[in-house]
């Protein structure tokens, strides 16, 4: 009866325990039988789980203020679908040539969505091979589609003397923190109405939209695990806040 346990963290691989948990931070261990799960904190390895535990503990201490200058090699923008994090990152790159975007990989059919040059499409079978071979720095399933990034792609950008900016979910950001130093995570937060409107206007299936909307309940909790939070009204405001953090 894990649904009756009041605790800070629950770590489990059964979806019904995660969904019914009273824990503040229910964390799913990815297994073959729960790959379709969406929105909640999830990890693929025990070291990723331990990193999240550390970050949860740190979230109860004093956070850096927005006037603190950040000197980080990797910037990860985290937030729900429809938060505008990709648009913010794209505009940021136009003004900051010392940064380069990290291209991610997805199994989602590119013909079914609007063009997005932040992703490279790979067939599901190839994606699984990349995960099993250890090529992937991080990977996750979202609404039945695989998403992930390669370690070698991050290293290539850094080897050129550039800094990395990427958009990903909290699980991917935790994997980055596990494997690289100087990683700064920034949660992109906007009013729920705006997020929902963006999701509903996306060129994707109804099922995909429903999954993204249901995930909002879980995703907003992840702000406490990030180093900074951008809470914005318009994209100029968001860009100003990001530049202030990284000045």
Features:
247 residues; alpha/beta; globular
Number of strands: 12
Helical content stands at 25-40%
Distance between the termini: 49 Å
The unreliable regions are: none
| Helix/strand order | EHEEHEHEEEHEEHEHEHHEH
Please report which band the strand proportion falls in: under 5%, 5-15%, 15-25%, 25-35%, 35-45% or over 45%. 15-25%
Classification by helices and strands: alpha/beta
**Number of separate helices:** 9
Tell me, rounded to a whole number, the average pLDDT: 82
Radius of gyration: 17 Å
In short:
Helices cover 38% and strands 23% of the residues.
Describe this structure in words.
The protein is of the alpha/beta class. Helices cover 38% and strands 23% of the residues. The chain is built from nine helices and twelve strands. The chain has helices at residues 15-19, 46-58, 85-95, 124-132, 151-159, 170-179, 192-201, 206-219, 235-246; strands spanning 9-12, 25-29, 41-43, 74-78, 99-101, 104-106, 119-121, 136-142, 145-150, 163-168, 183-189, 228-231. It has a five-stranded parallel beta sheet with strand order 5-10-4-11-12, sandwiched between helices. Strands 7-6-9-8 form a four-stranded mixed beta sheet, sandwiched between helices. Strand 8 (136-142) and strand 9 (145-150) form a beta hairpin. Helix 2 crosses helix 6 (170-179), helix 3 (85-95) packs across helix 9 (235-246) and helix 7 (192-201) runs antiparallel to helix 8 (206-219). It is globular. The model has no long low-confidence stretch (mean pLDDT 82).
